[in-house]
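Q: My labmate handed me this sequence with no annotations at all. I'd like to see what the chain might look like in three dimensions before we decide whether it's worth expressing. Could you predict it?
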Amino acid sequence: MRNSFIISDTYGRRRTGRSQLTSESRARLHTIEEVAIVRGFMKRMLKLGFLAGVGYAAWRYFERQRSASSVDWEPQPFPYPPQPRAESTTVSADDQAWVEAADGTCPVTHPVKAKLSSKIFHLPGGLNYDRTKADRCYRDPAAAEADGLRKAAR
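A: Here is what I predict for the chain of 154 residues:
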């Protein structure tokens, strides 16, 4: 097969053949065509990358929304869809900021004693810690201060 092409000059005359272009102009023509091909490929890849980024952001958003709910999905046999299963919402005593005192004494997990009538909390090792009958027991001094209590002076 012969590598021929058609060229139109400024007067509209059509010329065919290989002899019209020099080897330098042929090389430039191939370079321009290759640049156009690479440029088109890069544009497509940029658009595809942008689309993938938007898809990933949407997936992360919906995944975060799904995991924020308290519903857990229990897998079922093949023809049936997964069934929702509510998780237990019980909070252990270690996770709570305060617990009620049992007979004025505090558990080891919540050593800070608080009197609600005086709005004062006592830390272990304080002067009046042993004789204070606590209304509430806090996990740490920051939790007691967050409830509006102040630290005992002694």
